[in-house]
């Protein structure tokens, strides 16, 4: 996958793969190309060249609607939640269920409750709580639950623990693992190497728009990850990525 903005090439032959039932973490310093790669996957940007595979078949993704239609959901760092609405209203925002011209509140409330329960979320007292009353961890949980409500197959999480305390971080990381255990492909973007090492199955390191390495979690430690982020290489890391293009899930 290649992507340029005018004369500036941001992604250089990047190969990235998300597999069902696993957490793959995407790491890299600021400006490494993480956001651009995610926006190409999500259809916000179109790629200049390269192949986009979904479930083994080539697809064309030109808009966010295209990626959402395939089952790809992205939870950005700002969460995109409306504080003046309750949990149910946020989870169904823009996708409300109706009976004729009337909102089917019972159906939406039941689906929201079942989704949270299926993810073993126990920190939310009522799905009719306003988001403004929720803690940071609870808001992150709602945003993640919202992303899996629509039979998603791939969930991309952008810095989900960035502003959370220790206990809330623990809750979110447990939820990230449960998503993978349910068979979803989970992409975790994070600067916190301890979080990455805690929940990842594989780790992909970007450096100056190139994929420096894609490695198994068991093959690396924190020092090696920092070296990959800051220099783009680590002589002691096995599993350097190839230059082939494409995204598959």
From TrEMBL:
The keyword Nucleotide-binding applies. GO terms for molecular function: ATP binding. It comes from the Bacteria. Transmembrane segments: none annotated. InterPro entries: AAA+_ATPase (IPR003593), ABC_carbohydrate_import_ATPase (IPR050107), ABC_transporter-like_ATP-bd (IPR003439), P-loop_NTPase (IPR027417). Residues 1-233 form the ABC transporter domain. Keywords: ATP-binding, Nucleotide-binding. This is ATP-binding cassette domain-containing protein. It comes from Jatrophihabitans lederbergiae. The lineage of its organism: Bacteria, Bacillati, Actinomycetota, Actinomycetes, Jatrophihabitantales.
């Amino acid at each position: 996958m290649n992507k340029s903005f005018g004369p500036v090439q941001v992604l250089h032959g990047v190969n990235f793969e998300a597999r069902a039932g696993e957490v793959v973490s995407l790491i890299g310093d600021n400006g490494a190309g993480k956001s651009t790669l995610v926006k190409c996957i999500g259809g916000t940007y179109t790629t200049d060249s390269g192949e986009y595979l979904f479930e083994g078949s080539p697809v064309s993704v030109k808009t966010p609607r295209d990626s959402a239609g395939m089952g790809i959901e992205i939870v950005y760092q700002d969460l995109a939640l409306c504080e003046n609405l309750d949990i149910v209203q946020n989870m169904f925002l823009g996708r409300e269920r109706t009976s004729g011209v009337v909102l089917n509140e019972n159906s939406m409330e039941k689906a929201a409750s079942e989704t949270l329960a299926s993810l073993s979320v126990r920190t939310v007292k009522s799905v009719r709580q306003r988001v403004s009353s929720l803690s940071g961890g609870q808001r992150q949980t709602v945003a993640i639950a919202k992303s899996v409500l629509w039979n998603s197959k791939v969930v991309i999480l952008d810095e989900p623990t960035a502003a959370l305390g220790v206990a809330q971080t623990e809750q979110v990381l447990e939820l990230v693992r449960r998503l993978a255990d349910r068979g979803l492909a989970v992409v975790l973007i994070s600067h916190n190497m301890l979080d990455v090492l805690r929940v990842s199955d594989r780790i992909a390191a970007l450096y100056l728009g190139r994929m420096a390495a894609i490695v198994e979690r068991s093959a690396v430690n924190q020092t090696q990850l920092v070296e990959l982020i800051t220099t783009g290489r680590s002589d002691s890391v096995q599993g350097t990525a190839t230059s082939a293009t494409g995204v598959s899930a």
